[in-house]
# Entry
Amino acid sequence: MRREKTQVGIIGAGPAGLMLSHLLARTGIESVVVERRSREYIEKRVRAGVLEQGTVNLMRETGLGARLDREGLVHRGISLRFEGTDHRIAFDELTGGSTITVYGQQEVVKDLIAARIAAGARLHFEVEDASVHEIGSSTPRLRYTVRDEEVEVECDFIAGCDGFHGVSRDAIPVDRLTRYEREYPFGWVGILASVAPSSEELIYSSHERGFALLSMRSPVLTRLYVQCHRSDTIEDWPDERIWEELHLRLETDDGFALAEGPVVEKTIAWMHSVVTEPMQFGRLFLAGDAAHIVPATGAKGLNLAVADVRVLAGALDAWYRTGSTAALASYSATCLRRVWRAQHFSYWMTTMLHRFPGDDAFQRKLQLAQLRWVASSRDAAASLAENYVGMVRV
Ligand code: RFL
Ligand code: PHB
# Structure
C-alpha cells in the first residue's frame, strides 16, 4: 500500500469537492480529491443550470469568472405560467438588483477542473473503493484504489463531497445522525434539445396535466422538464410523448409556440428532500448532496453545495491560521440554517406548481389562489424572488 499525506482529503469531484479544493488552495491549504468517475464523464453529466447571485460572485472573486461572464446567461426574472397566462417575477426590481445566471453545472465543473489542474492539484479520477477511517482521531485516513494500487492518505480533515449515493455519510455511526426526509410522489423527465429556447426567461408552468418547465443552456440549447409519475420509467416517455405533454402544459391563450428540436439527452429524476444532521462527525465534514438534497423546483442543490464549502473552507482556514476550532464546531449549524431555508422554499415551490395524485378540484382552486397571490402581491412575489436569487442572510 502506498502511503501519502495531505491536509484535507476530499471524496468526490462534483461542484462541492472541486470548489472546496479550489477555495482551500487560495489560502495555501493542500488537498487531495478522489473521484470515482472519469473526467470526461463528470464534464458531460447534465444537471443543474441556475446559479444564484452569490455563487456567481464567488466564482468571479476566485478567478473563475471569465467564461461564466462570456457564456452565462444573466436572467432578471422568471415567468410563472398558469391558466394560460404568464406572470413575470422581476428579480432585480424585487430584490434591489439581484439576478440569476443560467450556466450549466458541467460548465462549472469544467472550469473548476481546469483551474485545479493548472494549479498542479492532486486530483485523481476513476478511483475505486474510496473509504474513510479513524475519523474520530486527529489523523483520519482516506483509502482508495487507483489502477490496482492501494493508496492511504493521512489527513488532518476529510470532506465527504461524494453526493447522495456516496460512502462518506455511512462512515458516521448511525446513532449519531438524524435523517429528515420527504418523498414526493412524482419526478421530472428532462430533455436537452438542440433548438433555440422559445422564451428568453425560464417558464414554470402549473397545468391541470401536471408541471412543466422551460429552461435553457445556451442560445441554441433548450432544457425542458415534464412532471411524471413516481412509477414511470424512461421507456414510458418516448420523445413524441414528451413533446406532446410540453405543448399541452405550456400552452397559453395568446398562442405561445414551443419550438422542437432533436433530443440530445434524456433523464428522469425524482423529487426528494433529505437532510442529515449534524453535517459533521469528528474530523469528517459532509458537504453538498452528501448531506442534503432538495427537489429541483427551487434550483437550489448546486447553490447549497457551494454555500456549504464556502463555510467549510473559511472554518478550515481559521483552524490552520489560529488553531481556533470555533468555526469548525459551528460548521454544521451554520450550514443547516441555509439548508432548511432552501428546503422550505423548494417544498413551497414544488407544492405550489405540481399536481399531486389524488388532488381534488378544491385543492386545485387553492393552488390557483396561491399562484394568483404570488403573481399579484408585491410582497409575495418579493419573497419568491429573495429566495430564488439566494438568501443573503439566513
Ligand atoms: P455531486 O455533483 O453528486 O458530486 C458528487 C461526486 O462524488 C462522486 N462520488 C464518489 N467519488 C469517489 N468515491 C465514491 N464512493 C463516490 N461516490 C460518489 C460522484 O461521482 C460525483 O462526481 O454532488 P455535489 O458536489 O454535492 O453537487 C450537488 C449538485 O450536483 C446537485 O445538488 C444539483 O445538480 C441539483 N440540481 C440543481 N441544483 C441547482 O442549484 N440548480 C438547478 O437548477 C438544479 N437543477 C439538479 C437540477 C439536479 C437534478 N437531478 C439530476 C437530480 C436538475 C436536476 C434534474
Ligand atoms: C435547469 O435548467 O436544469 C433547471 C432550471 C430550474 C430548475 C431546475 C432545473 O428549477
The radius of gyration is 21 Å. Residues 48-50, 202, 215, 223, 296-297, 299 surround P-hydroxybenzoic acid (ligand 2) (CB under 6 Å).
